[in-house]
Amino acid sequence: MRPRTAREVPPGYVVHRVADATLVFDAALSSELVALRLADPGARKQLFARAPRRGRGAAPSIELRRDVSVILRRYQHGGIFGGLTRMLHLGPSRALQELRVTARAEASGAPVPHVVCLALWPAAGPFWSALIGTREERGARDLLEVLRTGHDARERRILLREVGAAVRRLHDAGVDHRDLQLRNILVVDENGHRRIVVIDLDRAVYHPDGRLASRLRARGLGRLTRSMVKNGLWKQRIGRRELAAFASAYTGMDRKLRVELRGWIRGERWKLALHRLRYRFMDSASPGEAAAPPRRA
Length: 297
Prior knowledge:
Layout: E1 13-18, E2 21-26, H1 30-34, H2 41-49, E3 53-54, E4 57-58, E5 61-65, E6 68-74, H3 82-85, E7 89-90, H4 93-107, E8 115-124, E9 127-135, E10 140-142, H5 143-149, H6 153-172, E11 175-176, E12 185-190, E13 193-198, E14 205-206, H7 214-230, H8 240-251, H9 255-285
Antiparallel strand pairs: 1-2, 2-8, 3-4, 5-6, 6-9, 7-9, 8-9, 10-12, 11-14, 12-13
């Protein structure tokens, strides 16, 4: 079930078939990407051999041009079955879905990374493996790292207003991000100009009507709030004033949206209360566990 023609990938991408692998490249960077030999198992192994760990696994940074670098990430399962299934997936649809959703979001002006390439290859029977490459955001730090190290409360509120506006643009583009959390939001500093980028759209869903339902918006915002609590920022770095700054920028002058979101807040509060109990139990069970490394793209 591999992409058979260029029509199955977004505009601006080209499909190459090398042996049993399928490669999807940004057409503007095709010649540089061909040189990486992503269809060759040995070349892929070498690229990841000494790469730094980001998120769930190694993610090498490769310079394609002087002004363009790509971060490669292998698709891996998480959770309790992650150690068993690792990088095996039923068909190549997961990677292709992330490409399509991200490309549509980018075309709509949402603050998402640019997908540079995909590599997909059959692994065993109906199972496939894949990797995705996104353009590296130089000078980026994830939001968790920025909030932990920033000491100025006023600056944190300004930052969270920018994050609120960025998440609103993502939702207005019709994207339901299934893992909206602090490590998946990048703060990019470009010569004194700050940008917010929402990364890791794996399993994200695009709604073609271009507008996300309030229920789905509230679910994503609730997940982001739980991420703040889970990482120990609540009442330490983030309080009601910071959340108000985020919410004000997210809703803007849209009174109808504010009213609709309030209707879903009660359910998200229950989720937060249950997750707080879980976090306390996990903390007491593993008091010496080290924090996970920051995630970047």
